Amino acid sequence: MTPFYTATDHLVLLPAIMLAFFGCAILLLDHWAPDIMALFRAANPKDRKWLLPVFVLPGIAFTAYTLWRQQSYLAASGATDIQAFQGSLVIDGFSLFFNWIFLIASLIVAIVSYRYLDIEGEHHGEYYGLILLANSGMFFLAAGSDLVTLFIGLELMALCFYVMVGFLRGDRRSNEAAMKYLILGAFSSGFLLYGFSILYGIGGSTKLAAISEAMAARELDDPVLWLALITTAVGLLFKISAAPFHMWAPDAYEGAPTTVTAYLSVASKAASFAFLLRIFLGPFAASREVWEPILAAIAVLTMTVGNFAAISQTNVKRLLAYSSISHAGYMLLGLVAGNETGLQGISVYILVYTFMNLGAFLVIVALRRGNLIGDEIEDLAGLMRRSPGMAMLMLVFLVSLAGIPPTAGFLGKFYIFLALIETGHYVLAVIATLYVAVAIYYYFRMVRTMFLDPSAEQEPLAGSFGLRLAGVSAGVLTLAIGDYPEPFLRLAQTSILR
Amino acid sequence: MPEGYVPLFIFLAVAILFPVVALILAKYIRPDVPSRVKLEAYECGIQTASDSRARYTVRFYIIAILFVIFDVEAIFLLPWAVRYQVLGWFGVAEVAVFLVVLAVGYVWAYKKGALEWI
Which among B107, B108, B110 is the top mutation candidate for probing chain A, defined by the most A β-carbons within 10 Å of its own β-carbon? Predict the structure, then answer.
C-alpha cells in the first residue's frame, strides 16, 4: 500500500500549510492582541500596527522560502514536474510561476492596507487572515491537478473574497457588491461543478491526466464532450470575468474596499486563469478544434464590452474593472493562438498585469482620506500639482495598461499579437490592435485630468510608508520589465504548461 | 434465508421494542400532573401562534452557520472512524489537525461573541 503522506507530499503542500497556519494564527491572536501588548507595556495596546510585521510578513516570507525550496528541488530533480498525493497536486514551472505571482500580490496588498483600514475603521486581524487564507486557496488552483482539489481551492479563495468584498460593513455599496459577487459566484460554481460531474463521468476519475486520456479518445462531435466543454467553460469564464459573464465584475470592484479591489482584480484573476489553463490545456487539449473558435469569439466580445463600456465610466474603480475585463480578453487570445509564444505571452501578460494593475489601484488607495472616497475621476484632478510623485507613478501604470512602450504593458501585448500572427489569426490580431487605440482614449482621459485639470484641493496625498514603497516597487518593475525583459521572459518560458 | 440478515432482524426487533418498552415504563414511573399548556401540541405539531414569515434576529443565522460547521465535522469524522484500522496513526494525526483547525474557528467565533445571546 502506498504511504499516505510522504516527504514529497509534505514539500509540495508546505506553502499552503504555511499560509493557512499564519492565517489562523492572526485570527486567534488578533483577539488577545491588546492583552499581549499590555504585557509588554505598549503605549497604545489597541493599536494593531504590529500585526503586519509580526505575522503577515513572516507568513509570506516562510511561504516564499518553501516555494524557493520547491523550485530548487524541482531544478535538482531535473524532471518537468513532481507529483504528490497520488497525482492530486503537482509542482511544475507553471504552478511555481503562478504561486510567486499570488505571493507578490498578497505582499503588496498587505503592506498598503494598514492606513486604509484605519481610515475605514475596520478590523485588521480578519483582513490579513483572509488575505493569507485566500492565497492558500490560490495555491491549490495553480498546483492542483485533480478536479476536487481544484474546486476546493477555488471555493477557499472565493469565500475569502466574498467576505473581503463586503468588508466595509457600514457601507451599502460594499454590502451590495458582496451580495452580487456571492450570488453570481455561487451560480458559476454550480455550472463548473456540473461540468466537472460530466468530466468525471467521461474519465471515471477526478485526476486531470485520466480525464485527458478519456477526452482524447472521444469523437469531436460527441454531444457529451460538448456538454462537458460548455458547462465547464462557462464556469471558468465567469471566474475570469470574460463577456458575456462579466456582469459581476464592475459592481464587485466598485463596491469593495479599494485594497480588496486591487487584490481581487490581480490575484483572483491570475488564479482563475491558472485554473482555466490547467483545464483547457489538460482535459480539453484534444478537443481544441471545438473550443478554439468559441473562445476566439468570447475574447473579441470581452475586449469589445470591456473597452467600450470603460469609455463612459466616471468612477475610476469601475473604469479599471472594465479595463481588467478587456485585459482578460487579451489573455484569452494567447490561449486561442495556443502555440509556445502564445502560452508564454499569457504568463508574461499576467506578470505584467499584476504590477501595473496593482500599481494603478495603489494610487486610488492613496487618494482615500477622511471624508473623500477618492474613486471618481475628478478626484484625480490636479494630482500632478498636489503630489507629483504619485502622478508620475500613475502615469507609468496607465501608459503600461494602455500598452505603450517602453513600459511592461507593451511587452505583454506584443507577445500575444506575435503569437496570433504566428498561428495565422490575422483578423484577431487586427481587432486586438484596434482596441488598443480605444483603450488609450479612456486611460488618457485620467492622465489629462491628473495633469491639466485644476484641483479643488491643494494638499499632497498622505500615503503610508508601505504604500509608497509598494507603489515605487510596482512602478520600477513595470518599467524594468518593459526595458529589460530578458530575465522575465525566461521566467515566463519556464511556466509553459506542457 | 441468508445468514447475513439475522443481525438486521435483531436490530429491527430492538429498534421496535426500545421505544415501546420505554414509553410503557415511563407511563408507570413518571408523576402525572397534566395541565392545559402541557397537553398542547409539541414542537412540529405546534398550533399556529403567528405568521411564520416573521423577522428573525441575525443571531439565528450565526448559530445555524456554526451548527453546519460542526455538523460537517461529524460527517468528516465518520469515514475516518470506519477506516480507523487502515489509517492508523496517520489518521489520528490527520483528524487531530482537522479538529485543531475547527477549534481555531470555534475559539474565534466564541471570542467574537457569536455565541452570546443578548
Answer: B108
Give the start-to-end residue ranges of the domains of chain A.
287-498
User: End-to-end CA distance of chain B, in Å?
Assistant: 60
- ipTM exceeding 0.85? no
Residues of B in Cβ contact (< 8 Å) with A5: 90
- The answer to whether A28 contacts B107, with C-beta atoms less than 8 Å apart, is yes
Which amino acid does the sequence have at A234? Answer: V
CB–CB of A382/A454 below 8 Å?
Answer: yes
- Model confidence over A171-228: pLDDT tens digits? 899 999 999 999 999 999 999 999 999 999 999 999 999 999 999 998 888 899 999 9
* Domain ranges across chain B: 3-111
Contact A4 B87 (CB under 8 A): yes
Long-range contacts of A223-226 (CB under 8 A, 24+ apart): A224/A198, A225/A287, A225/A290, A226/A290
Contact between A31 and B101 using a beta-carbon 8 Å cutoff? no
Cell numbers found for residue A179: 451580495
CATH number listed for the domain at residues B3-111: 1.20.58
- Confidence (pTM): 0.88
- Beta bridge partners of residue A146, listed in sequence order: A207
pLDDT digits (tens, 9 = 90+) for B13-39: 999 999 999 999 998 998 888 887 777
